[in-house]
Amino acid sequence: MKPNAVVTGGSGGIGSAIVGELRRRGFEVTSLSRREGCDVSDEQQVRRAFSRLEELDVLVNCAAVLVKRPLVELSAGDWDEQLGAGLRGAFLCSREAFRLMGTKGGSIVMVSSLSGVAGAEKFAGMAAYVAAKSGLAGLTEALAVEGRPIGIRVNAVSPAAVDTPMLRIAGVEGPSLQPVDVARVVAWLASPDSAPLSGANIRMDPPEYGER
Question: What is the mean pLDDT of residues 44-72?
Fold first, then answer.
């Protein structure tokens, strides 16, 4: 029987690459995104989506929203939307994943960003996005502790700029990774090949980024 995976933000640039990579590796993948009728920041929608699954082996939290605005122009709604998709959604989906994985175990992968890594370069107008990704890094460590006794591994990957439509919204110039680069690392973290790694946050920071 094929292993089962859920990927949030699965219709986006990185998310769709992750869906494709996991399917290529033999996973049965359920993609959750607003385009596909599931807002992961909505508790009831998340519960309904996960209630259709009888079991779960892998969850990839990849959903994110970026609204680039100076702080004085950033509305509370803009803030809530970005924290909702990027952090609240990861909490809601991870909670359902813990319930489904139970004592059988499984793997949760958070798709974070260098924006959420302490000391890495930050960009103006992205306060809410940075806050969401920073929270995701902390959530990874906290859930890894809770998951360890029951065999649930929780890790994160934090790439530098990735060539997606979101990168063009960010307006970040310079070299970029490709979505498939991130997808391959996520697939490795999702697989038994990365056991017993848990609580890790893997930076995807090519050498040229340190020279900007």
Answer: 95
Tell me the domains of the chain and their CATH numbers: 4-211 (3.40.50.720)
Task: Out of 10, 129, 155, 159, pick the active-site residue.
Answer: 129
Q: In this structure, is the dihedral angle defined by the CA atoms of residues 133, 12, 157 and 208, taken in order, positive or negative?
A: negative
Q: Is 129 known to be catalytic?
A: yes
Closest CA to 56 of 111, 124, 8: 8
Angle at CA 52, nearest 5°, toward 46 and 54? 115
3 state DSSP class of 63: coil
The strands making up 4-8's β-sheet, listed across from edge to edge, are 28-32, 4-8, 58-61, 106-111, 152-159, 201-204
Structural contact between residues 114 and 140, judged by C-beta atoms closer than 8 angstroms: no
Residue-wise pLDDT tens digits, 128-171: 999 999 999 999 999 999 999 999 999 999 998 777 666 666 55
What is the distance between the alpha carbons of residues 93 and 26, in angstroms, rounded to a whole number?
22
Alpha helices for the chain (secondary structure H): 13-24, 43-51, 76-83, 89-101, 127-147, 165-170, 179-190
| Predicted TM-score of the model (pTM) | 0.90
* 3-class SS of residue 202: strand
The Cα 55–Cα 80 span in angstroms is 31
Amino acid at 36: E
